[in-house]
Design goal:
This protein is of the alpha+beta class. The chain is 38% helix and 19% strand. The chain has a four-stranded antiparallel sheet, with helices on one face. The longest helix is centred in the N-terminal third of the chain and has 14 residues.
Length: 144
């Protein structure tokens, strides 16, 4: 767990832009390059999973963003979700549903085709079409 001010500042800068250099982060946080390098090395070893890009899917013509809550005991469901090109993330959840799924589709016909296959694999499902993104990927990024 990190609690020191320097580590949190460095992590915030990495969350804003993971391509930032050690030199840039050291300037922004008023810490030495050596300290920043050591802290990042520690974070990479212990809790940073990977450095990635946040994609604007609409610019790639994936205009429908749908989130599903799914109740199912069918073991084929996870295989279907894992292999489907439209799925962005799958989470196991507690409560009335077993899975929370986020998917992107280019159009309604692509969504409908997916939905028909999904219906056969689940007991119950609810879908929510995302209309507007208000806040995303902003936890520990200095913009709270």
């Amino acid at each position: 767990m990190i609690r020191d001010k320097e580590s949190i500042q460095i992590l915030e800068k990495l969350r804003e832009d993971s391509r930032r250099s050690v030199i840039d982060i050291s300037r922004c946080t008023n810490n030495s390059r050596t300290l920043v390098f050591r802290k990042i090395k520690f974070m990479n070893k212990h809790f940073i999973k990977k450095y990635t890009s946040i994609i604007d899917f609409k610019r790639l013509d994936y205009n429908l963003r749908v989130r599903f809550l799914i109740k199912s005991k069918n073991k084929k469901l996870l295989q279907f979700l894992s292999k489907n090109k439209n799925i962005n993330s799958v989470l196991i959840v507690k409560g009335n549903f077993n899975f929370y799924v986020e998917a992107y589709f280019k159009n309604l016909s692509e969504f409908n085709e997916f939905d028909e296959k999904l219906k056969k694999l689940c007991q119950e499902k609810r879908e929510h079409f995302v209309v507007e993104e208000i806040k995303e990927e902003s936890f520990i990024n200095g913009k709270y």
